[in-house]
Task: structure prediction
Amino acid sequence: MLSLAVYLEIICFVIALVCLRKIKEDAWRGMIIYLFATCVAELTGHFLKVAHHKNAWVYNILLIAEAFFNSVLFGSILKQYLKARPLIIGGLVLTFVAYIFELISHGIFIFNDLTVIVMSVIFVVYSLYYYFLLINDEQYIDLKRHASFWWVTGSLFYYFGGIASYLFYKFLAHINLGGHNIMFTISFALSLLLYSCWIYAFICKRWLQPNSETGY
Result:
């Protein structure tokens, strides 16, 4: 049986397809490709697990798409305030250095934990930097309708929570809550926050913010 998080991903992909396919900004449309890749990877990983085969390699491949497409959208959002390309390229270089190091160290069949941590730290830094720039922006912005704000907010909660989970994994792995390991509950809660914020961001991008057909 598929996990609830997978259903959230599928719902998010469908809404992204409906909301973003006519948006003119490539960075936002890239979310459709990324979420489709995520759904395919999750379904593939699930069936490999059921068949008692190793599935870490599927998620290691997905990490490439996650790092690239999210970085591109962060760059598109940040470039409203500064020249973001050097920052984004630097983050991608750091992430892929960690990725290659792990592949050399243990191969593709063991999950790249270090890469996830490095990528998550970078995305948290991007998110906090965005908030700093947003706070200092003199232009009025209606946050209720601002797609970038909600996309970044979901990303911040998800990746910051992921870092905390990794750091305290040995402690949390032994705690059960409602018949489930607490890590399962935390993982689902983070996924719910991420995809709820992203879904609302996609709706804002398509229908609620000014110039939603073309974006800002």
Notes: The longest strand covers residues 176-177. The beta strands are 176-177, 180-181. The two ends are 41 Å apart (CA to CA).
